[in-house]
Amino acid sequence: MKYAHLNRRSAIAAGGMALFSTPGLFAEELLATPRLTEGPFFPDRLPLDQDNDLIIVNDNTTPAVGEITHLTGRILTKSGSEVQNATVEIWQCDANAVYLHSRDSDRKKQQQDQNFQGYGKFETASDGGYRFRTIKPVPYPGRPAPHIHIKVSQNGHEVLTTQLMIRGHEGNARDGVFRRAGDVAERERILGDFKPLPDSKIGELACHFDIVLGRTPADR
C-alpha cells in the first residue's frame, strides 16, 4: 500500500485516546462510540483508488492541499476485544470544502482539489488497528464543525456509522450533528486531538481515535 511505503519516512507517534467505561457494576465495559448520520455526500461514484492514503491519487506525485494527518486507531467491542477483519471506510471534503459526490463536485469543479482522493478504506488485522493518511478536516457550508465520516462493516454488514470531530474547535458548539450526538460524555467520544507529529519536517499531524462498537454481526 502507498501509505505503508510513504510512512517509512516518518513514524506515527500518536497519543492514545482515553476509553470511557461504564461506572458502577460494569466498570470493565467500554462505552460505545455514538452513531451519527452518514450525511448526503457518501461518494456516489467511488474512486478507482480506494486505498488508505487519501493525499496521493494513484501514481500522482502532487499531494492534496491541506494539513497532512495520520489517522490511526483500533476497532473494539464493548468488552475491549480487538475486532479483526473489519472494513473501515472514511470520507470527507477536501481543503476547499468539496466532497467527492456529484451533487457537490459537479457544481464546484473549479474549486475541487483533484489531488485529494476523498474516500479510502482499510481492513483491520488481529490487533483491530486501522490507519489512514488524510488531511485535517475543514468546515463545510452548513456544518461549522470540521469532521471525518467513518463507517465500520464486518462480514458484509454495516455495524456503525459515525463522525470524528476536532476537540476544542469553535464550530462544534454551533454544529447540529455534534449537538445531537448526546450528552457531554457521548459527545466526548466523537472528539479527537490533532497533534503535531514529532520530528515531522513538513508539519504533519497525528490523531488516534479508537472506535467501540455497540454491537457486531454476531449480535444480530
UniProtKB/TrEMBL annotation:
EC annotation from Swiss-Prot or TrEMBL: 1.13.11.3
Residues of the Intradiol ring-cleavage dioxygenases domain: 38-213
Entry superkingdom: Bacteria
Signal peptide residues on this chain, from the entry's feature table: 1-27
Keyword Iron: no
Gene Ontology molecular function terms on file: ferric iron binding; protocatechuate 3,4-dioxygenase activity
Family annotation (Gene3D superfamilies): Aromatic compound dioxygenase (2.60.130.10)
Keywords, in A-Z order: Dioxygenase, Oxidoreductase, Signal
Region: Disordered, residue numbers: 103-122
Family stated for the protein in its record: Belongs to the intradiol ring-cleavage dioxygenase family.
Protein name: Protocatechuate 3,4-dioxygenase beta chain
